[in-house]
Amino acid sequence: MTDKAGLKELLPEEVVKAKIREMALSISKDLEGKSPVFVGILDGAFIFLADLIREITVPVEVDFLRAASYGDGTASSGTIRITKDVETDIENRDVVVVEDIVDTGLTFRSVIDHLRAKSPASITVAVLIDKRERREVEVDIDYVGFVVPRGFLVGYGLDCAGRHRELRGVYEIIK
Ligand code: IMP
User: Fold this and answer.
1) According to CATH, what is the number of the domain 7-173?
2) Strand (E) or helix (H) holding 49
């Protein structure tokens, strides 16, 4: 364990890396013969996406989407604004949405609805951390890395007020 001040290590780097290799193996098998577009949800998913696609064995394209949630800053309202849309034409393409963490599910569901409106051939969802603490709406996740019941997590792309994204593992903020 390599705890840092105010943080408790939850998922060490090697554990995350091993899980990503496992996820990439399943995704590659399921998408055999296809050339999917991986869509990373900014900002948090950039590290997960980078590690995931390098373990994928089918040819991939990469694009990004950023969504801002209208809310009071702490609670997700479920109404989103796309501040950066995908630039690839995903009509009739196989899309893999890559997200770091799903919590209430509100933001994520709106993002999926937004992408579905572009008529892709398929949408599959890969999420590193399924945090069920405050789940409000059901979201279909095809590939889940870890299920974490609660806590506020940082590291491996996840931030708290812009900090800690660079940590190699996933940590829980302790008070
Ligand atoms: P939602 O509640 O599922 O709509 O999640 C909204 C967004 O909140 C996620 O995409 C993350 O960016 C962020 N988020 C939720 N839980 C955490 C956490 O534990 N650490 C860092 N970001 C989080």
Assistant:
1) 3.40.50.2020
2) helix 46-53
